[in-house]
Amino acid sequence: MHATTNMLFEVKDLEVTYLQGDQREPVLKDVSFYMEQNETVALLGQSGSGKSTLAKAMTGMLPHSARVTSGSLTIGTEQVANLTDTSTPWQRIRGRRIAMLYQDPRQALNPLMKIKDNFRELLQDHQLASSRDYLQISEQWLYALNFQDAKRVLECYPFQLSGGMCQRVCLALALCLKPSVLIADEPTSALDIVNQREVLDVLKTVQKQYGLTLLMITHDLAVANSIGDRVLILNKGKIVEEGNTKKVFSKPQDSYTKQLLSARSLLSESPQRKSVSFQSKQKLLEIKGLEKQFQQKQVLTNIDLTLHRHEIMGILGQSGCGKSTLARCVMGLETINSGQMMYKGTDLSKLNNKKRRAMSKHIQLVFQEARGSLHPGRTALQIVMEPLHYLHLGNRKERQSLAEAFLKEVGISSDMHARKPPQLSTGQCQRIAIARALVLRPEVLICDEAVSALDMHVQAQILKLLQQLHQKFEFAILMISHDIRVLRSFCHTIAVIDQGRFCEVRPANALEKESKNAYTKKLFHSALEMEKGLSL
Amino acid sequence: MLLIFSRKILEALLTLGLATSILFILIRLAPGDPVAIMIGQSSDVASSNTERYEQKLLELRSEFGLNQTIFQQYFIWMKQLILFDLGDSIHTGRSVMTEIADRLPATILLSVAALFIQIVLGILLGVLSALKFGRFFDHLTRFLCVLFASTPGFVIGLVLLSTFAVTFSTYEINTEAKLSRLWLPALTLGMIGAPQWIRTIRANMLTEFGQPYISSAVSRGLKYRRIVEHAFKNTLLPIVTMTGLSLTTLISGAVVIESIFSWPGIGKYALDSILLKDYPVIQGYALLMIALVIVIHLVIEIVYSFIDPRIHRKGEENVKKDY
Amino acid sequence: MLKKIINFKKSTSFIAGIILLCILFILIFGASIISPLDPVEQNAAERLQKPSLEHPLGTDRFGRDILTRTLYGGQNTLISSVVALSVALLIGLFVGLVAGLFHGTLLDAVLMRIIDVLLAFPFMVLAMIVAGLFGTSLFHLLIVVAAVWWVSFARLARSIALQVKSETSFAAAQILGASHLTLILKELLPKAAGPVLVFATFELGTLILSISALSFLGLGSQPPSPEWGSMLADGRDHFMQTPHILLGPSLFVILTVLAFNLIGEGLRDRLDPYEKFE
User: Where does this protein have coiled-coil stretches (chain A) (predicted)?
Assistant: First the structure.
């Protein structure tokens, strides 16, 4: 596999360990790969696979607790760095030969510096411009990256730009040194799908235009699929499979790759729910004309929503659209500015503290941060008993047996009852959180991005679990998510929310075909574009 | 922007009103009759016959409005405050305002000089210590910080005084507020406050070094000096707050040092007045300190909103935030 | 070698602080066993002696052994500062957590206003005013401590409460129906306790320093009671002639505050360790 003629970048036998306590934990084991000139390689790995460590190791930016035990880095024909050597002249390599893009573009720019000052320092330090002509050069680069009003952007502080714009600024900063290799570490995962497309498109264009060799580090199959010529799969610090993207995704060899792909197709396959009419069923939750402002900023505008018994309704929206605020309003964690939220005829917004507390028996919420929503110092069993204790339901024995029963329902075996959240996986934590919500036997369960922080195959498991529990206990679900695939396969009805307003509410299986709304179409387009060739 | 400022100023005025009211209550709660104490000072009346003494007491009481109800007294008191009438010193008979105005410049001079020393030491050692994190220099600086922070100011002052005034005779001991006498008390106050500055700047620098924008700047191959500048720029914001806090601590806490070095400032004057039970002066000193603290806090908030673009521009541009 | 001694890694400072504090405690509270001399009885024949084998820190102007008096004096100083600061800590913790829990309501606004007003009185200034109006005594000083020192604890506790409130686990407890009391005791208090205690160790040091400064000025406890502050006040007037009178109490103030500061440093490093940057 090394016999390529125009090989540009090669990493050989990279091994990195982290110091944990007094022990050395290996993070990367025997990692070797190469990139050809003008090639885009996607490095795909789930959280904890060591992919960020890999990116840091290639620019000599590992934290102090990490140690490179072996490895070398070659660019072109020249071995630029023996990675174990701490005296490598990184300053001549960073930026000029290898550029980096980071996950959160807003935090990757100094908050107190205008964009133009970033350019000035960079160009001056690398002796590419003087204090007179730097503005002109930086403007050209911004225009090259699709900025319409480069002059204004240069005068802005990072907080005045959107995430996508910040990432393009970072890209311009990286490109203006004309590096041969660009390493992008999850450059789009902090962005919503529309911004994500924007950045990916720009990346593709500049990669071709400037003949860049691009290493795209990502956890997202769709991103890897849409951009990578070749793909490397990283699992637990080892590259388990590599090859042409199409080939790997259509005929995976390694068991881990297969597992990733099958989880993906589980999510994507639309069971095409029959359109069930819920009109005749009892209305559980009825929201009318809900408005919410945060310090003069309108977050939710005129929300109307009706949730019937046994219905699963999805709320689809990108980050910052106000969908989590809606959940928090229903749960009484936020006060609303106007409108009505009726639960079986009682107005939720007019309850006093005591009645509000009692309402938790009827409406429950599961959070995105599974681990964060559980008290780290309590055992699984104690966590599930918590709500019963708060509401003074039953005696100690009854609480315990009820909690045990519900832990069994969510598939947590009894040997794990005494474990605390730090000793449990994220998936197990989310199961416990679901058990804790259901132990009160609510009639409405709100899932606020309840699966988005989970790895792909765990997502599929949790969704399946929710479906089973829904069948058995017959509660209604309000499923809030940014992920079209999750909602399409899981919900009866989907409401699309954009900038605090409902665009449309339609049956899930009809949304794609019947939608006339531009925003919905854009969402579908962005999502499906990236999936091309993935859904088998 | 203007709206925020005027709101802050109104809040500060409210705080000032409430704080002065607390002071009034404290003064009225104090045991002993101020008038009796006052007469006790001028011994010619006290020693003579009791009838004249009683009469003098009544005269002075009505003069101070002490025979009216507490609320009336409060309003008279407030009115005098608003007119900047703080009464006369019992001891010297001069107006408290002039007495304080005579001494305030000396204290401000001392505090500003000490603040300057603190900031220079703080930035220099704090930044260096952060850059040498985990090395010998860092450990030494941290240890000295803890040691100096654990030593009472008067000990540092007395050691310096005995070294420079007694052993080397390079420092003259008198009660003048001359520039040539400023350096030693300023140095002492500087050394007392410096550990706090060094620790804060070091900690802030380390926090900034951990931020993603620093690793991003490193990955762009910027010069080392530049990266340190980046981090330092972001540590400047907390420094503004610290300047204000230090200034209040310095002005109010200069008492000890002023008294050791016989520096004729406001703190030493207040201390002498307390020992002489000169009530109008104590009251005047308290009012001055309260007003100073509130004004300094107000100025910090306003300055802060000017230098941090994130606060400054809020409302003008749409600040994008995830909810 | 020096590097090892002053190495702050691996909570060396914490251990050093604890050891130092233990030694001081044994010395101070075992004063009657360690020193056979009487702390109050005057002895005109041995006035103002320089340090010697018999009197390691010399004698004061009444011929009393300074070391003995310093040891006995520590009992008063330590107990009274700890009691006063504990009162302040409890008030501050309670007010801060309540204000944090009810953030955005009238109750929070009122509590914050009270805090703002009290912040306008620097401790030294208020202590001086009280000493001037009500007379100088250690008791008055301690009342002042309890009355204003809680403000700094309250501000810290409130900021922690606000931070905890934004965490998911707090929202979870809220929607599961926890009452206000449960929220404070089970969600806010456990998370606030650590940082507040660390802060309190530092504040204890600051308090001892402040009290000693005020006593040095003659505004604290009064002679002849064996107390560090009053001993400092006593030695102040004759400092130029007999500096050793100040040595004993000063040394013990420094060591005690140093012990608390070292413990605080060690604890704080455990709470938030920094990642090393090259």
Answer: none
